[in-house]
Specification:
The complex is a heterotrimer of chains A (179), B (579) and C (247). Helix content of chain A is 78%, strand content 0%. Chain A is mainly alpha-helical. In chain A, helix 1 runs antiparallel to helix 4. In chain A, 37% of the residues are buried. In chain C, the strands form two sheets. Chain C has a five-stranded mixed sheet. Classes of the chains: A mainly alpha (179), B mainly alpha (579), C alpha+beta (247).
């Protein structure tokens, strides 16, 4: 028997992705823990005088991420060629998300609510920034899927990752925009 | 060595090379620290004018803070982690479970190169204008923020730790998946060598808690570079942050980290004691249970590093009680070690000597943990050399002894040659004696009240009488350092001149000893089928049938069983044979 | 003990030494037994010619009972006893803050890189007023009266360490921690920093001077008068005061 094929299509992929997501979940859990501590110890939240967040853009971004996950879930049932096109669509949506986030950040900085403006800005930028890094990483994976195609397991793993990124975003969005 | 290989055995050697190199650097730093403790303010001989030229060959207070920072950082993250977990984990797991490689070979390669990138960043931090990192390996805020330690050095430290953690998480994903998915047919959970169980538990802790450290590093990075205020508070620089938040995040990782470092050592020692006592590991399943219990409890005790921070009494007392509870499984597995040794037919080869030394040292070190678990005693002992002695006994001594045992034991499999026994024994004796002197005496000066991280203890009148003890510790430390050169020499000499090793020089039954030394690229010609546990040693039926006291895991199932009962014979008493 | 801790002059320090002694005895006995077992195994259970190891997996119920039994016995006999005593001492002594003791001396401590600033409230009993007594690196307290300290830090985490009183407490920027002690005899005792706080951490030494009651009272009144005369609201040190009950 020769060395194992590098690209596998079995439960191993799913197990690996699950453990990886467990690790990333712990990282975001720790970030949210920090957020909870900051919020609990602050005299008021949002701090008095804090400029409001662009809830509209953030809400739109939520829908963009949801759409990307929806496309990927659908793609799992398509043939390889169509699934690759689906991956391109999801990639475009993800890129759109990042662009919109960049715009949100710029507008906040200009309104004096940047990362150095206090604890509210600290929390917003740290969590959304780190989340955006994970979206960017996911785009790399999507690009690979779109360019080379992927079997059902790998596509499932990719979709699981995007669902996770969406779940983290929903938690963040709930904390940031909902009362 | 510099190739991008996906073979777990090559990656193991890459981790080993990297780790051993940094072990030497970290050890050298320890020698410098001990020089300063013994001869405060005296120029360092030989290397002083080169390393500390700006201060006339004398270690300055600023340089000293970087020395103890980088000594700790390097030893934990860049020596023990790559050697014990990166090298041994990579080399042993696929071979021991009967697989051809890890589940994700490419990820494996990425893991070692990410570690290499981390070492590059850490090395760079020595050569930046405002100096090397200097906030301690624990990097408490606000000292570790730009408020307390401005400059690129400390920021590079944060990046290096983050990259190191990324490498560890990659490894954890690989190890866990491999152990779950790639075991050979018949390799049930309870036929795994305890070494593999140790790596499984370590990897679970790595996957869960290194990300918490990563989060702390992300927030610290943001505070340093983007001006956020997670950890900024006080009156000099105002901020709405909480320095204690950093400690919570750090120790949520930090306490599991010490178990991350010791679990592979526990696993290796549990196997090796059995191999060299020529009898099965005593209480295998209970030991596995103990590993699992320690793993499960490890994150619940972290507050014992923070008893003096003003936590609520109830919280503090809970941490105290939980810390005492976690000692129970540790005691159980320690007793199982003694049970393994008892009434064996001990072979005192070098790996066994290291293991016995570990049992001794871990015994002392573990017991000293009780002193620190008790809040009343800890109020006095916290941040003294008692803590330094405690964690060096457990972490440095025990873990290093496991590393020496593991290297000596698996050297023939890795490189096809045996290490020299006489040099090994000499190294062992010099190491075990000097190590116990160094860290045992640190317990003494800690109880005498000497704080940690003091550049010059003679500032305090009550510490002046301790100088002779500090000098004795330093001399023993220099002996300890020098003795390691014997191991280095043995290692390299044996690579070229060691006695050629056969397939199974130690005469034990785990699967790595069924393949050539060193193994071919694909490990096994045919994947093995497993019928026995890893510790089938001293089985009388095996002895009767095969004339030897060990049985390979993949040998025929009936070899370990009692002979079939014959109707005209009374029932033979059945010894306990594991399935 | 030739290399022992400094003489304990506090009313509760003996509890720390007692815990230490108890643990030393208990763990030494355990360790001696371990060493004995190891020695016997190494000396007499060696694989010399003809010796056959005793084949057992140690997984019968009686083996489990032995291991667990010993572990639990140790836990109950050592850990539980110690925990019981220590939890009691924490509740009744170390963390029983002398909030309302009639003779308590309150001190506000502000740690900074690299010195200790101590503030006594003076006759008006309030901090941040003209009659406060502010000293740097030297704390004077009366003997035989509880001294209750609240600690803050200006910059990084420090730790006020009183080796002759067997205790310490961190001083954390952004929060207030607490410590209390009571001296049994007068004298001069060292205090220091026990948390790495930068380049001059090793020099953050101070002195705790315990004076007989009357002598302390006289000194404190005089120092308070001095402070009133020299009071400068704009001085940096004036900022290191807070309302005692605020935190």
């Amino acid at each position: 028997m020769s060395a194992p094929a590098i690209r596998r299509e079995d439960a191993t992929t799913t197990v690996g992705m699950a453990i990886f997501l467990g690790a990333v979940a712990m990282l975001f859990a720790a970030l949210f823990f920090a957020y909870a501590v900051m919020r609990a110890q602050a005299p008021a939240w949002p701090p008095t005088g804090q400029a409001p967040l662009p809830a509209g853009t953030l809400g739109l971004n939520t829908l963009v991420l949801v759409a990307a996950s929806v496309v990927l879930h659908a793609a799992r049932r398509w043939d390889v060629a169509r699934a690759r096109r689906g991956a391109w669509v999801a990639l475009a949506l993800g890129a759109g998300f990042l662009a919109a986030q960049a715009a949100v950040w710029r507008s906040l900085v200009q309104a004096g609510s940047g990362p150095a403006s206090g604890i509210y800005g600290s929390v917003f930028f740290a969590i959304s920034g780190f989340h955006a890094l994970h979206v960017a990483g996911g785009l790399v994976a999507l690009a690979l899927v779109a360019a080379r195609g992927a079997g059902p397991r790998r596509l499932a793993a990719c979709t699981l990752y995007w669902d996770f990124v969406l779940a983290v975003w929903l938690l963040f969005y709930a904390g940031a925009c909902l009362r | 060595m510099l190739s991008f290989s996906r073979d777990h055995k090559v990656i193991a050697k890459q981790f080993l090379a990297l780790g051993l190199a940094f072990l030497a650097v970290g050890g050298f730093m320890a020698m410098l620290i001990r020089w300063q403790m013994a001869h405060p303010g005296a120029p360092v001989p030989l290397v002083g004018h080169v390393l500390f030229g700006a201060s006339g060959g004398i270690i300055s207070p600023a340089a000293y803070t970087s020395l103890f920072t980088m000594h700790g950082t390097i030893m934990i993250f860049f020596a023990v982690t790559p050697i014990l977990i990166g090298a041994f984990g990579n080399f042993c797991i696929p071979l021991m479970i009967g697989a051809r490689d890890m589940a994700f070979p490419t990820l494996n390669a990425l893991s070692v190169w990410t570690m290499a990138a981390a070492t590059a960043v850490l090395t760079a931090s020595f050569f930046v204008p405002l100096g090397a990192p200097s906030a301690g390996w624990t990097a408490y805020a606000t000292l570790s923020t730009a408020v307390g330690t401005p400059g690129l050095g400390q920021t590079l430290w944060v990046v290096a730790i983050y990259l190191n953690g990324t490498s560890s998480v990659m490894g954890a994903v690989n190890y866990i998946t491999t152990i779950i998915r790639e075991r050979a047919p018949g390799m049930t959970w309870f036929r795994l060598p305890l070494t593999v169980w140790g790596f499984l538990m370590t990897s679970i802790l790595n996957a869960l808690f290194v990300p918490v450290l990563a989060a702390g590093m992300v927030l610290l990075f943001f505070d340093r570079v983007f001006g956020t205020q997670f950890f900024i508070a006080g009156s000099t620089i105002k901020g709405g942050g909480d320095p204690i938040l950093y400690q919570h995040l750090f120790w949520l990782f930090g306490h599991p980290e010490v178990y991350i470092l010791i679990l592979p050592a526990w696993g290796i020692v549990s196997d090796l004691l059995s191999f060299f006592a020529r009898k099965p590991a005593y209480g295998y399943r209970v030991t596995v249970g103990a590993f699992c219990a320690v793993t499960a409890l490890s994150s619940l005790v972290y507050g014992h590093h923070m008893f003096t921070t003003g936590m609520s009494p109830l919280l503090g007392e809970s941490f105290m009680v939980l810390t005492m509870i976690i000692s129970v499984p540790a005691v159980v597995l320690f007793l199982n070690w003694l049970g393994t040794l008892w009434r064996g037919a001990m072979r005192l080869d070098t790996p066994m000597l290291y293991c016995l030394g570990l049992v001794f040292t871990f015994g002392v070190g573990g017991l000293t943990g009780l002193f620190l678990a008790d809040i009343v005693a800890d109020l006095y002992l916290h941040d003294t050399y008692f803590v330094v002695g405690h964690f060096h006994l457990i972490m440095a001594a025990a873990v290093l002894l496991a590393i020496f045992a593991g290297i000596t034991f698996w050297f023939p499999k890795m490189f096809g040659r045996m290490m020299n026994e006489r040099l090994g024994k000499l190294h062992f004796w010099l190491t075990i004696v000097s190590l116990n002197v160094v860290f045992g005496l640190q317990l003494v000066i800690g109880y005498a009240g000497m704080q940690r991280r003091l550049y010059d203890p003679s500032v305090y009148d009550f510490l002046r009488p301790l100088l002779p003890l500090n000098q004795l510790i330093s001399r023993a430390g220099f002996v300890l350092g020098a003795a390691q050169l014997i191991f280095v020499f043995n290692f390299f000499w044996s690579l070229w001149r060691g006695r050629v090793a056969g397939e199974n020089p130690w005469e034990v039954g785990t699967l790595e000893w069924t393949v050539p030394s060193p193994p071919p690229h694909h490990n096994f010609e045919e994947l093995p089928v497993v019928h026995h546990g890893p510790h089938e040693l001293g089985n009388p039926f095996v002895r009767a049938r095969l004339g030897r006291d060990w049985l390979g895991q993949n040998e025929a199932p009936e070899l370990a069983a009692p002979p079939p009962a014959r109707s005209d014979e009374p029932e033979a008493a059945e010894p306990e044979v594991a399935s | 003990m030739p290399y022992g801790p400094p003489r304990d002059v506090s009313i509760d320090g003996h509890l720390v030494d007692g815990a230490f002694r108890y643990l030393t005895v208990a763990t030494s006995i355990c360790f001696a037994i371990v060493v004995l077992v190891l020695a016997i195994a190494v000396l007499f259970h060696r694989g010399r010619a003809g010796r056959v190891a005793h084949y057992t997996h140690g997984d019968r119920r009686r083996h489990l009972a032995l291991s667990l039994g010993v572990a639990l016995a140790l836990f109950v006999g050592i850990d539980a006893v110690l925990a019981g005593r220590s939890l009691g001492h924490l509740e009744t002594r170390f963390w029983a803050w002398p909030e309302n003791a009639p003779d308590v001396v309150r001190v506000e401590v502000t740690a900074r890189q690299w010195a200790w600033v101590f503030r006594l409230a003076g006759p008006d009993g309030r901090f941040g007023t003209r009659d406060d007594v502010v000293t740097m690196n030297e704390l004077r307290v009366p003997v035989g009266r509880p001294v209750y300290l609240k600690l803050r830090s200006r910059d990084v985490v420090h730790s006020l360490y009183l080796p002759s009183f067997r205790t310490k407490s961190d001083a954390v920027p952004g929060s207030t921690t607490r410590l209390w002690f009571q001296a049994r005899e007068p004298g001069s005792f060292e205090l220091g920093c026990a948390q790495h706080c930068g380049v001059s951490h090793y020099r953050m030494r101070g002195e705790l001077r315990v004076l007989p009651s009357e002598e302390w009272r006289l000194w404190s009144n005089r120092a308070s008068e001095d402070g009133r005369l020299r009071y400068d609201a704009s001085a940096e040190q004036a900022a290191d005061a807070w309302d005692w009950d605020q935190g």
